[in-house]
Model the fold of this input.
Amino acid sequence: MHFSSSALTIAAVLLAGRAAAGFDRQACNGIGACTTSASCNYWPNRSDNGPQEPEYDCGSAGTINGQKSAGATINLSQGQSAQGAQIVARADFPRCDLAQPSATATLLKTTFDGGITVYGWIEYSCTETTRIPDGGCYSSLKNSSHVYTCKVLKDGQTCKHINNDIVDANSCPK
Done:
């Protein structure tokens, strides 16, 4: 049986649950931050439908299934260190549906699997003064920071979340 490394990574994160942390080695002036999905984010396929069910409808660009949606979310949780990550100027950042970034949030855009673009932000908590080593988020969440997903696009088309997988709408900052 053959599994791709990205499929195994996504499966591991889904098995570990939403609490699994990403690591942004560039955060907090290079000290690093352990990043977790904010409680008001959509999270792919928490239902029994499985990871191949459509998670986003992207109009003429088609749909995004839960496995790819999870991969994009994991990529965003790596923040500034993510492959394809770019810091976005506030003037170029889209209006979000669920929550709005604070004045101190780091606004990001990242690409995943070629055609998927995710806009989001991280509210960093930078309290540690010693560099966090790679893998330093497994036993504790140093510089615990929250990742928010704002907009998902596929091949330039805005995608609409089509499952009711919101964790806690009341916890979303407005």
User: Anything to note?
Assistant: The chain has one domain: 5-171. The two ends are 46 Å apart (CA to CA).
